[in-house]
Design a protein that fits this description.
This protein is of the alpha/beta class and 298 residues long. The chain has 12 helices and 9 strands. The strands form 2 sheets. The protein has a 5-stranded parallel β-sheet, with helices on both faces. It has a 4-stranded antiparallel β-sheet with strand order 4-5-3-6.
């Protein structure tokens, strides 16, 4: 039997109309209905009708996308006879992985990511921070780029190591703009801002991390039934307190996605399934390790 891992996408995979092809599957609507009862608004309607501006607001994106990830997981799981050997999620997707591993209940995860979205939105005033995608430079070049582009008292660091030669940086807006210009001068294939409302996975999120640290203490977290590879340290944690710490640290540290997939490869994974809307992780994984196929479920 093949060793299978399941991965869950994060912000950026949402779109108005996502999962419309699954609308008639009972477990999908049940998942969205349950989310609506917890959150107090029609999650399915927001996912299907938008408006796009609201769906892309962090405090709505996070619980809606978590719901979509779990809905797809629920469908996939009914079609399988065995569990995956590992789970992982990209940023927000880590919460879906913990729900799938039964470390977090779905209602608790919804409430937690709704708070997380608000904390992140409130952490940095509009215009202060930014994120940019850099393609075509290696990790050492990215680290040097960030160091040289930030002024004293500015923050600029890698935020997402998404794929080989594909990195996202985050920090103060002026520093990000200087890095974009410098990356282009170094011959980067792409260097541009990405349209996000908050600069995630950098120290500008410290106020949000402090609030999240208090929120996760109040949530019941159990040892995962399936190992979850965390973004922060590329390790599984059976202890609930270590999981809480990983979720908090994730806000201010980079998403180490390349290493996550390489960890799976070293540990014998033969197939990866992307559970969620879109094919973002499928594309990233193909460039990280072409020897392990990733299959999207939508």
């Amino acid at each position: 039997m093949k060793k299978v891992a399941v991965v869950f996408p994060g912000q950026g995979s949402q779109s108005v109309g996502m999962l419309s092809s699954m609308a008639e599957i009972p477990v999908v609507r049940k998942t969205f209905d349950e989310a609506g009862e917890v959150l107090g608004y029609d999650v399915w309607e927001l996912a299907q009708q938008g408006p796009e501006e609201k769906l892309n607001q962090t405090q709505y994106t996070q619980p809606v996308l978590l719901t979509a990830d779990i809905a797809v997981w629920s469908v996939w799981k009914t079609q399988q006879t065995s569990l995956p050997v590992f789970l992982a999620g990209h940023s927000l997707g880590e919460y879906a992985a913990l729900v799938a591993a039964e470390a977090l209940s779905f209602p608790d995860a919804l409430r937690l990511v709704a708070k997380r979205g608000v904390y992140m939105q409130d952490a940095v005033p509009p215009g202060i921070g930014a994120m940019a995608a850099i393609v075509g430079l290696n990790d050492n070049q990215i680290l040097e780029l960030c160091e040289k582009s930030r002024e004293p008292n500015e923050i600029l660091t890698p935020a997402n190591f998404n794929s080989i030669g594909q990195t996202v940086i985050a920090g103060h807006s002026a520093a990000v703009d200087r890095a974009i210009a410098a990356a282009s001068a170094q011959g980067a294939k792409l260097a541009k801002r990405i349209p996000v409302s908050v600069p995630s996975h950098c120290l500008l999120m410290q106020p949000a991390a402090q609030k999240l640290a208090k929120a996760v203490v109040e949530v019941d977290i159990r040892p995962p039934k399936i190992p979850v590879i965390h973004n922060d340290d590329v390790s599984p944690h059976p202890q609930p307190d270590a999981i809480r710490q990983a979720l908090v640290q994730q806000l201010i540290h980079p998403v180490r996605w390349v290493e996550t997939i390489q960890f799976m490869e070293r540990n014998g994974v033969q197939t990866i399934i992307e559970c969620g809307p879109g094919k973002v992780l499928t594309g990233l994984n193909k460039r990280i390790t072409p020897t392990i196929p990733t299959y999207p479920t939508t």
